[in-house]
Write a sequence for this structure.
């Protein structure tokens, strides 16, 4: 759908075509029988982070039966922890089932919105990614389905301009760049890096991975293939897939007491730390133990589940892990704070994202911005993480303080 084709403004505008926007659009049709809405997204299609992320090894770290919409169960996942292509295929299947493609205006950025007191509508400012043209669109209801993992952190060190290799962020992966027989630098040791390193280790000449902070690495489900027999059971036996989904939910919820400041929570945190320590010491080279064993309380950061054998990959001769700091790029190498130099043909940024989903200019009644509203409150807030005072008919999905570190984001989106 091209911009500017509406003879009158839509009732609802959804910004974002990832899981949040997908769920909202489906529920508008399912629950409210509303077909009068438009979805804007900076990318060309549906998928959000699953469309943007194409790096080798990209996949889910939550069991697939629970990383899906409750009203659109998928019996066809081939693995308990499917890879990116399967997740994206699932999303596209839901799009087709609910006939959502005709509602999407892709390659369009949301640059702002203001509440119009005179006619009780939202005036939404948009920009075409392809042409740079800016225009506005009115609506009665505005829904922000913008995710946090959208703006990759840049590499802010001297020498980026003189580096003669490729610099790629995991969220902006260039599939035309081959890593075969290359010296690869990986910056970061979170979930993306933990998936990437084992996926490419056999093909590259060398990997040097730079880490900043320690993680709690926990054993994952390696090679957890779902057989055709189970797929048929999920498809044809009523209630089985729903029951599995519920059991996964219960299992994940059993971990939540460890985040409480109680005796039970302290005991569970110690047990989790012991599991992590045992897993690392049984599978990683001893020289890396000081880098892999976290020295802070469980729960301060999200745990990293090693579904792809990252810890054991550190035993390979062509894989190196260091907590040295990259301070400069040269033509075909990187220089570090310790004075060392490492060969580099490709620099992979697995260094996270700038959390800027609340930076877009949003003005409510009497022109009051949300930053002004939050400044007055003293902190970022939203009622039930969804709505804000003085911002009528504006709603968040996965809004302030809605993030959960132990369970499925899709579950949180629906709730």
């Amino acid at each position: 759908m091209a911009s500017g084709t509406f003879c009158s403004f839509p009732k609802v505008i959804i910004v974002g075509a990832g899981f949040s926007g997908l769920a909202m659009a489906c529920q508008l049709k399912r629950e409210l029988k509303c077909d009068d809405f438009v979805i804007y997204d900076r990318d060309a299609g549906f998928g959000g982070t699953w469309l943007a992320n194409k790096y080798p090894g990209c996949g889910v770290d939550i069991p697939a039966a629970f990383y899906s919409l409750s009203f659109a169960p998928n019996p066809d996942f081939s693995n308990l922890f499917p890879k990116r292509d399967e997740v994206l295929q699932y999303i596209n299947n839901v799009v087709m089932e609910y006939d959502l493609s005709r509602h999407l205006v892709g390659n369009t950025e949301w640059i702002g919105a203001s509440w119009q007191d005179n006619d009780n509508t939202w005036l939404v400012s948009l920009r075409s990614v392809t042409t740079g043209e800016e225009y506005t669109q009115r609506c009665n209801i505005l829904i922000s389905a913008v995710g946090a993992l959208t703006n990759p952190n840049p590499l802010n060190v001297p020498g980026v301009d003189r580096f003669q290799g490729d610099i790629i962020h995991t969220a902006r992966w260039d599939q035309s760049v081959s890593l075969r027989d290359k010296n690869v630098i990986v910056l970061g040791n979170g979930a993306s890096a933990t998936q990437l390193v084992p996926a490419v280790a056999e093909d590259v000449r060398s990997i040097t991975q730079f880490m900043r902070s320690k993680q709690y690495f926990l054993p994952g489900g390696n090679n957890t293939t779902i057989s055709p027999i189970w797929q048929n059971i999920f498809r044809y036996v009523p209630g089985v897939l729903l029951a599995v989904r519920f059991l996964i939910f219960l299992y994940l919820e059993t971990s939540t007491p460890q985040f409480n400041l109680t005796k039970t929570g302290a005991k569970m945190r110690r047990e989790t730390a012991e599991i992590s320590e045992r897993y690392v010491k049984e599978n990683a080279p001893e020289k890396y133990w000081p880098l892999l064993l976290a020295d802070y309380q469980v729960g301060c950061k999200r745990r990293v589940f090693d579904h792809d054998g990252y810890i054991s990959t550190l035993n390979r001769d062509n894989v190196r892990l260091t907590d040295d700091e990259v301070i400069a790029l040269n033509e075909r190498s990187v220089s570090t704070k310790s004075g060392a130099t490492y060969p580099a043909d490709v620099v992979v940024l697995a260094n996270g994202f700038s959390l800027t989903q609340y930076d877009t200019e949003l003005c409510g009644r009497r022109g009051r911005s949300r930053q002004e509203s939050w400044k007055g409150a003293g902190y970022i807030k939203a009622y039930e993480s969804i709505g804000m005072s003085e911002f009528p008919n504006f709603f968040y999905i996965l809004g302030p303080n809605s993030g959960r570190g132990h369970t499925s984001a899709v579950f949180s989106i629906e709730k």
